[in-house]
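Because showing beats explaining, we think one record worth quoting, sequence and backbone structure tokens together, and here it is:
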Amino acid sequence: MPVGSLFPMARHQLTRVAHDRLKAEFDDLTTRGRIQVAEKIGRAREMGDLSENGDYHAAKDEQGHMEARIRTLEAILEDHEIIAAGEDGEVSIGCTVTIVYEGDDDDMAERYFIGHIEERREGVEIMSPKAPLGAALLERRAEDWVDYQTPNGSTLRVRILAVEHPD
């Protein structure tokens, strides 16, 4: 049996901040959220004929969207690991990296947070560590040049300008 198969890696790698936010959202939706939607459905039912009741259909749609979000959050929270900050100055999951494409000026730099799509960082795009560029950037440092292959097969080159780890 391969070594890694005894303890498979979690599918969702989250920072502590994202985990806590997702857990709070899950707790809110499964308590207050469900109660509010049930009340909306109840009020709409009191209006009579459900076949032409827009409020009823809107509340049922809201309930469906909320339950889908609850299932998504539940799946993430059941199969996750909290990632620790990487080595200072090294690109790792949970850091923000500033890059510039070969041939571009430094003022054309782009900033990305390397992590799970649920991280949601203000003012910065999220890049999956499993994406071609995200994977190529891991364990590299500021001023490194990184080549990566795009999904269409071409090779692009970027320079890492800065790596920022959360405090």
Notes: The first strand starts at residue 12 and ends at 14. The first helix runs from residue 16 to 45. Confidence is low (pLDDT under 50) at residues 1-5. The chain is about 35% helix and 20% strand.
